[in-house]
Protein backbone atom coordinates (compact mmCIF):
# COMPACT_ATOMS: atom_id res chain seq x y z
CA UNK A 1 0.00 0.00 0.00
CA UNK A 2 1.48 3.33 -1.07
CA UNK A 3 0.48 6.89 -0.20
CA UNK A 4 -1.11 7.43 -3.61
CA UNK A 5 -3.35 4.40 -3.02
CA UNK A 6 -4.29 5.71 0.41
CA UNK A 7 -5.14 9.10 -1.08
CA UNK A 8 -7.35 7.63 -3.80
CA UNK A 9 -9.37 5.70 -1.22
CA UNK A 10 -9.68 8.69 1.08
CA UNK A 11 -10.79 10.89 -1.82
CA UNK A 12 -13.46 8.44 -2.97
CA UNK A 13 -14.86 8.06 0.53
CA UNK A 14 -14.92 11.80 1.28
CA UNK A 15 -17.50 12.38 -1.48
CA UNK A 16 -20.18 10.26 0.25
CA UNK A 17 -22.34 11.86 2.93
CA UNK A 18 -25.37 9.62 3.45
CA UNK A 19 -25.48 8.03 6.90
CA UNK A 20 -24.62 4.40 6.17
CA UNK A 21 -21.76 5.36 3.88
CA UNK A 22 -20.57 7.89 6.46
CA UNK A 23 -20.35 5.15 9.07
CA UNK A 24 -18.35 3.07 6.60
CA UNK A 25 -16.03 6.04 6.08
CA UNK A 26 -15.39 6.15 9.82
CA UNK A 27 -14.46 2.48 9.96
CA UNK A 28 -12.49 2.72 6.73
CA UNK A 29 -10.45 5.79 7.63
CA UNK A 30 -9.81 5.29 11.29
CA UNK A 31 -9.92 1.63 12.12
CA UNK A 32 -6.60 0.66 10.71
CA UNK A 33 -5.55 -2.82 11.82
CA UNK A 34 -4.39 -2.00 15.32
CA UNK A 35 -1.38 -3.52 17.00
CA UNK A 36 -1.22 -5.09 20.41
CA UNK A 37 0.88 -6.91 22.99
CA UNK A 38 2.84 -9.99 22.02
CA UNK A 39 1.97 -13.21 23.79
CA UNK A 40 -1.44 -12.09 25.06
CA UNK A 41 -4.56 -14.20 24.49
CA UNK A 42 -6.93 -11.25 24.85
CA UNK A 43 -6.93 -7.56 24.05
CA UNK A 44 -9.15 -4.59 24.86
CA UNK A 45 -9.13 -1.50 22.60
CA UNK A 46 -10.92 1.79 23.23
CA UNK A 47 -11.04 4.28 20.33
CA UNK A 48 -12.60 7.69 19.81
CA UNK A 49 -13.19 9.70 16.65
CA UNK A 50 -14.75 12.99 15.67
CA UNK A 51 -15.14 14.99 12.51
CA UNK A 52 -16.57 18.15 11.03
CA UNK A 53 -17.37 18.79 7.40
CA UNK A 54 -19.31 21.28 5.33
CA UNK A 55 -22.64 19.55 5.89
CA UNK A 56 -22.37 18.38 9.48
CA UNK A 57 -20.44 16.82 12.33
CA UNK A 58 -19.91 13.40 13.86
CA UNK A 59 -18.69 11.97 17.13
CA UNK A 60 -18.12 8.35 17.92
CA UNK A 61 -16.43 5.76 20.07
CA UNK A 62 -15.58 2.13 19.46
CA UNK A 63 -14.68 -0.55 21.98
CA UNK A 64 -13.32 -3.91 20.88
CA UNK A 65 -12.33 -7.06 22.73
CA UNK A 66 -10.37 -9.90 21.15
CA UNK A 67 -10.27 -13.40 22.56
CA UNK A 68 -9.37 -16.76 21.08
CA UNK A 69 -12.93 -17.90 20.30
CA UNK A 70 -15.09 -14.74 20.45
CA UNK A 71 -14.76 -11.24 19.02
CA UNK A 72 -16.70 -8.31 20.55
CA UNK A 73 -17.32 -4.79 19.27
CA UNK A 74 -19.47 -1.97 20.62
CA UNK A 75 -19.85 1.33 18.76
CA UNK A 76 -21.57 4.61 19.56
CA UNK A 77 -22.07 7.30 16.88
CA UNK A 78 -23.82 10.65 16.74
CA UNK A 79 -24.08 12.19 13.26
CA UNK A 80 -25.60 15.61 12.52
CA UNK A 81 -26.26 16.68 8.92
CA UNK A 82 -27.44 20.16 7.87
CA UNK A 83 -29.56 20.61 11.00
CA UNK A 84 -31.98 18.18 9.36
CA UNK A 85 -30.76 14.93 10.83
CA UNK A 86 -29.40 14.03 14.23
CA UNK A 87 -28.78 10.31 14.08
CA UNK A 88 -27.63 8.41 17.15
CA UNK A 89 -26.69 4.78 16.99
CA UNK A 90 -25.37 2.52 19.73
CA UNK A 91 -24.80 -1.06 18.63
CA UNK A 92 -22.81 -4.10 19.55
CA UNK A 93 -21.80 -7.35 17.90
CA UNK A 94 -20.59 -10.61 19.37
CA UNK A 95 -19.13 -13.04 16.86
CA UNK A 96 -18.63 -16.63 17.90
CA UNK A 97 -15.60 -17.72 15.89
CA UNK A 98 -16.24 -21.39 16.68
CA UNK A 99 -19.97 -21.57 15.97
CA UNK A 100 -20.10 -18.93 13.19
CA UNK A 101 -22.93 -17.06 14.93
CA UNK A 102 -23.42 -13.29 15.19
CA UNK A 103 -25.21 -11.66 18.10
CA UNK A 104 -26.37 -8.14 17.22
CA UNK A 105 -27.28 -5.78 20.06
CA UNK A 106 -29.28 -2.57 19.78
CA UNK A 107 -28.58 -0.73 23.03
CA UNK A 108 -31.05 2.05 22.28
CA UNK A 109 -33.93 -0.40 21.91
CA UNK A 110 -32.52 -2.75 24.58
CA UNK A 111 -32.92 -5.70 22.24
CA UNK A 112 -30.68 -8.34 20.72
CA UNK A 113 -30.87 -11.17 18.23
CA UNK A 114 -28.71 -14.08 17.12
CA UNK A 115 -28.04 -14.60 13.42
CA UNK A 116 -26.38 -17.24 11.33
CA UNK A 117 -23.82 -15.74 8.94
CA UNK A 118 -26.22 -15.76 5.99
CA UNK A 119 -29.02 -14.22 8.10
CA UNK A 120 -26.67 -11.51 9.33
CA UNK A 121 -25.56 -10.51 5.84
CA UNK A 122 -29.16 -10.49 4.64
CA UNK A 123 -30.64 -8.49 7.51
CA UNK A 124 -27.97 -6.12 8.78
CA UNK A 125 -28.41 -2.78 6.99
CA UNK A 126 -24.89 -1.60 7.84
CA UNK A 127 -23.48 -4.28 5.55
CA UNK A 128 -25.95 -3.93 2.68
CA UNK A 129 -23.42 -2.30 0.38
CA UNK A 130 -20.47 -4.49 1.24
CA UNK A 131 -17.01 -3.60 2.46
CA UNK A 132 -14.36 -1.15 1.28
CA UNK A 133 -13.72 -0.94 -2.47
CA UNK A 134 -11.13 -3.24 -3.98
CA UNK A 135 -7.81 -1.73 -4.95
CA UNK A 136 -7.44 -1.16 -8.69
CA UNK A 137 -3.85 -0.31 -9.48
CA UNK A 138 -4.61 0.45 -13.14
CA UNK A 139 -6.89 3.33 -12.15
CA UNK A 140 -4.55 4.78 -9.56
CA UNK A 141 -3.07 8.17 -10.31
CA UNK A 142 0.31 9.59 -9.44
CA UNK A 143 0.06 12.28 -6.78
CA UNK A 144 2.63 14.64 -5.33
CA UNK A 145 3.40 13.32 -1.85
CA UNK A 146 5.50 15.03 0.81
CA UNK A 147 6.27 13.17 4.03
CA UNK A 148 8.08 14.53 7.08
CA UNK A 149 8.87 12.24 10.05
CA UNK A 150 9.67 13.95 13.32
CA UNK A 151 12.35 12.58 15.65
CA UNK A 152 10.77 14.33 18.65
CA UNK A 153 8.95 12.11 21.13
CA UNK A 154 5.47 13.24 22.23
CA UNK A 155 3.41 11.51 24.92
CA UNK A 156 -0.17 11.15 23.65
CA UNK A 157 -2.86 9.08 25.37
CA UNK A 158 -0.12 7.55 27.55
CA UNK A 159 1.88 6.39 24.51
CA UNK A 160 5.32 7.59 23.48
CA UNK A 161 4.82 8.71 19.89
CA UNK A 162 6.47 10.37 16.94
CA UNK A 163 4.63 12.41 14.33
CA UNK A 164 4.42 11.88 10.59
CA UNK A 165 3.18 14.85 8.54
CA UNK A 166 1.91 13.97 5.07
CA UNK A 167 0.71 16.34 2.35
CA UNK A 168 -0.78 14.77 -0.78
CA UNK A 169 -1.67 16.94 -3.77
CA UNK A 170 -4.17 15.71 -6.34
CA UNK A 171 -3.80 17.50 -9.69
CA UNK A 172 -7.08 16.13 -11.06
CA UNK A 173 -9.31 17.75 -8.43
CA UNK A 174 -6.85 20.47 -7.45
CA UNK A 175 -7.21 19.11 -3.94
CA UNK A 176 -4.71 18.89 -1.11
CA UNK A 177 -5.04 16.37 1.70
CA UNK A 178 -3.08 16.86 4.91
CA UNK A 179 -2.59 13.95 7.25
CA UNK A 180 -0.93 13.92 10.66
CA UNK A 181 -0.21 10.55 12.20
CA UNK A 182 1.20 9.98 15.68
CA UNK A 183 2.59 6.46 15.99
CA UNK A 184 4.49 4.38 18.50
CA UNK A 185 7.00 1.62 17.91
CA UNK A 186 7.03 0.64 21.57
CA UNK A 187 4.09 -1.72 21.04
CA UNK A 188 3.97 -3.86 17.92
CA UNK A 189 1.51 -6.04 16.12
CA UNK A 190 0.70 -9.33 17.86
CA UNK A 191 -0.97 -12.56 16.69
CA UNK A 192 -4.42 -12.12 18.30
CA UNK A 193 -5.73 -9.45 15.89
CA UNK A 194 -4.39 -11.08 12.75
CA UNK A 195 -5.67 -14.45 13.95
CA UNK A 196 -9.14 -12.96 14.48
CA UNK A 197 -9.01 -11.33 11.07
CA UNK A 198 -8.23 -14.64 9.37
CA UNK A 199 -11.03 -16.41 11.22
CA UNK A 200 -13.53 -13.69 10.29
CA UNK A 201 -12.46 -13.81 6.66
CA UNK A 202 -13.02 -17.54 6.66
CA UNK A 203 -16.45 -17.18 8.27
CA UNK A 204 -17.55 -14.42 5.86
CA UNK A 205 -16.10 -16.02 2.73
CA UNK A 206 -13.21 -13.60 2.34
CA UNK A 207 -14.91 -10.22 2.95
CA UNK A 208 -15.38 -8.98 6.51
CA UNK A 209 -18.47 -6.73 6.89
CA UNK A 210 -17.53 -3.07 7.57
CA UNK A 211 -19.58 -2.87 10.76
CA UNK A 212 -17.18 -5.31 12.44
CA UNK A 213 -14.30 -2.86 12.42
CA UNK A 214 -11.78 -4.51 10.10
CA UNK A 215 -10.31 -3.41 6.79
CA UNK A 216 -7.35 -4.10 4.56
CA UNK A 217 -5.65 -0.72 4.64
CA UNK A 218 -2.29 -0.17 6.33
CA UNK A 219 -0.23 2.96 6.67
CA UNK A 220 2.98 2.30 4.64
CA UNK A 221 5.37 3.04 7.51
CA UNK A 222 8.03 0.74 6.10
CA UNK A 223 8.54 3.11 3.17
CA UNK A 224 10.12 5.55 5.65
CA UNK A 225 12.21 3.19 7.80
CA UNK A 226 9.52 2.88 10.45
CA UNK A 227 8.48 -0.51 11.77
CA UNK A 228 5.60 -1.68 9.57
CA UNK A 229 3.77 -2.89 12.70
CA UNK A 230 3.82 0.49 14.46
CA UNK A 231 0.62 1.41 16.31
CA UNK A 232 -1.43 4.42 15.20
CA UNK A 233 -2.16 6.42 18.36
CA UNK A 234 -3.65 9.50 16.72
CA UNK A 235 -4.67 10.22 13.14
CA UNK A 236 -6.11 13.37 11.63
CA UNK A 237 -6.96 14.43 8.09
CA UNK A 238 -7.53 17.96 6.88
CA UNK A 239 -8.80 19.01 3.46
CA UNK A 240 -11.36 21.33 1.90
CA UNK A 241 -14.17 18.89 2.75
CA UNK A 242 -13.48 18.96 6.49
CA UNK A 243 -11.43 17.34 9.23
CA UNK A 244 -11.40 13.96 10.93
CA UNK A 245 -9.56 12.90 14.08
CA UNK A 246 -8.99 9.43 15.53
CA UNK A 247 -7.55 8.68 18.98
CA UNK A 248 -6.49 5.40 20.53
CA UNK A 249 -7.35 5.76 24.24
CA UNK A 250 -6.71 2.31 25.68
CA UNK A 251 -4.85 -0.71 24.45
CA UNK A 252 -4.41 -3.41 27.08
CA UNK A 253 -4.69 -7.07 27.93
CA UNK A 254 -7.61 -8.10 30.14
CA UNK A 255 -8.09 -11.60 31.53
CA UNK A 256 -11.86 -11.26 31.82
CA UNK A 257 -14.49 -9.78 29.55
CA UNK A 258 -15.26 -6.11 30.41
CA UNK A 259 -18.88 -5.49 31.44
CA UNK A 260 -19.38 -3.10 28.53
CA UNK A 261 -19.63 -6.09 26.17
CA UNK A 262 -22.06 -8.16 28.24
CA UNK A 263 -25.76 -8.22 27.32
CA UNK A 264 -27.76 -6.69 30.21
CA UNK A 265 -30.34 -8.99 31.76
CA UNK A 266 -33.20 -6.60 30.99
CA UNK A 267 -32.56 -6.74 27.21
CA UNK A 268 -35.14 -8.63 25.16
CA UNK A 269 -34.21 -11.30 22.64
CA UNK A 270 -36.02 -10.85 19.30
CA UNK A 271 -36.03 -12.65 15.95
CA UNK A 272 -34.73 -9.72 13.91
CA UNK A 273 -33.17 -6.28 14.37
The overall pLDDT average reads 79
Number of domains: 1
Strand content: 35-45%
Largest sheet: 13 strands, mixed
Number of strands: 13
Can you characterise this structure?
With 273 residues, the protein is of the alpha+beta class. It has one domain (3-269). It is built from 4 helices and 13 strands. Strands 1, 2, 3, 4, 5, 6, 7, 8, 9, 10, 11, 12 and 13 form a 13-stranded mixed sheet that branches. The relative contact order is 0.24.
Concise description?
The chain has 273 residues and is of the alpha+beta class. It contains four helices and 13 strands. The chain is globular.
Characteristics:
273 residues, single chain
Question: What's the topology here?
Answer:
Blueprint: H1 3-14, H2 19-30, E1 43-53, E2 56-66, E3 70-81, E4 85-96, E5 101-106, E6 111-116, H3 117-123, E7 144-149, E8 154-156, E9 159-170, E10 175-184, H4 191-203, E11 231-239, E12 242-252, E13 268-269
Parallel strand pairs: 6-13
Antiparallel strand pairs: 1-2, 1-12, 2-3, 3-4, 4-5, 5-6, 7-9, 8-9, 9-10, 10-11, 11-12
Amino acid sequence: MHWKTLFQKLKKQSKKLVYNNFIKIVFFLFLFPLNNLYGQSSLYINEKMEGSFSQGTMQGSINRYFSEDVYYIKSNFNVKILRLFNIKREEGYIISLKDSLVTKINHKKKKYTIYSISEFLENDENNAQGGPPERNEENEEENDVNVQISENVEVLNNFETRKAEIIIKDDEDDQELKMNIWFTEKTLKAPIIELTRKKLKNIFNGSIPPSLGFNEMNIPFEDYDINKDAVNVKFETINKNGTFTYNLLEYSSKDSLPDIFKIPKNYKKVKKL
